[in-house]
Design brief:
single chain; two-stranded antiparallel ribbon; about 280 residues; about 20% strand; eight-stranded parallel β-barrel; alpha/beta
């Protein structure tokens, strides 16, 4: 298998413009950051310059949300060109994207819609993954979705993900929060899901906070606006016991805490990774 990531097997954190001034106060050599690609698909400006400068000191993971890998159409050539331009400016340690349907050639849905877990969808999704990998000249990581409803499928989602890995040579970004949410909302067994994945294919892990839908009792939402829950921490420990140390990202997109507070949560993840190193 090709090298999927140049990230260290340590904990990282989401990098928002609100944190730019605080980044260089941290001297942890194992720290890395992740940014959303679509926030930086621009020709220039101070924010892009800041990311370029930070990338000279810390590894940067670039996480896409708009390629629509799981949609029925090929990826927009305009979107591909802009991603290529971004990666020419920022030496990304890894690039990842969601297995989701977010638009067509002429319409953008503004959301990550579910990809059918079917044999036919494997073919179209694999073609899109290969299209993106060929454009970027590197293997990418594909992220498992957060599921809110149970849909008819031809196979377990973990088998679907591994089929895409086998066909395209990509890797997996396993989002533990998404897996926890899917288990709560649709009843899948998260432990069987983890056992169904080749640990060598996992190049990055996400953990994040979630919320409860105010209108649907018991439904969890992938909101990224709160601290990581106890259940997600426990599932992360289960995963790392299966895989060994991996890059783990604290993902935060809303209700942003101080840099120091998010760093403390990141350090909790680092402590867990360090403890796993002692037993594997």
């Amino acid at each position: 298998m090709q090298t999927l990531t140049n990230l260290p097997a340590s904990a990282g954190m989401s990098l928002k413009p609100e944190y730019f001034d605080s980044v260089h106060t941290n001297l942890d050599a194992n720290l890395w950051f992740e940014v959303h690609a679509e926030n930086y698909l621009i020709q220039g400006g101070p924010r892009l310059e800041q990311i370029q400068e930070i990338s000279s000191h810390f590894p940067i993971s670039i996480h896409g949300v708009g390629a629509s890998l799981g949609g029925p159409d090929p990826i927009s050539q305009e979107h591909l060109s802009r991603l290529v331009s971004l990666l020419n400016l920022i030496p990304a340690a890894v690039f990842s994207e969601h297995i989701a349907w977010s638009g067509t050639q002429s319409n953008y849905l503004g959301n990550l819609m579910p990809t059918p877990i079917t044999k036919d969808s494997i073919d179209s999704t694999a073609k899109n993954i290969m299209q993106l990998q060929n454009a970027l000249q590197r293997p990418i990581l594909i992220e498992n979705p957060a599921n809110y409803l149970s849909f008819k499928s031809d196979m377990p989602e973990s088998e679907f993900m591994m089929s895409l890995v086998d066909i395209t040579g990509c890797g997996i970004l396993l989002d533990i929060n998404n897996l926890f949410i899917s288990a709560n909302n649709t009843g899948i067994d998260p432990h069987s899901y983890i056992q169904g994945l080749n640990s060598d294919a996992i190049g990055e892990i996400h953990i994040a906070g979630h919320s409860t839908d105010p209108n649907e009792k018991g439904l969890l939402i992938d909101s990224h606006d709160s601290d990581v829950s106890k259940g997600v921490w426990e599932l992360l420990e289960t995963l790392l016991s299966h895989t060994g140390p991996k890059p783990v990202l604290i993902e935060r997109d809303g209700n942003l805490p101080t840099f120091e507070a998010l760093l403390a949560e990141r350090n909790q993840a680092q402590h867990l990774i360090n403890s796993i190193k002692k037993i594997v």
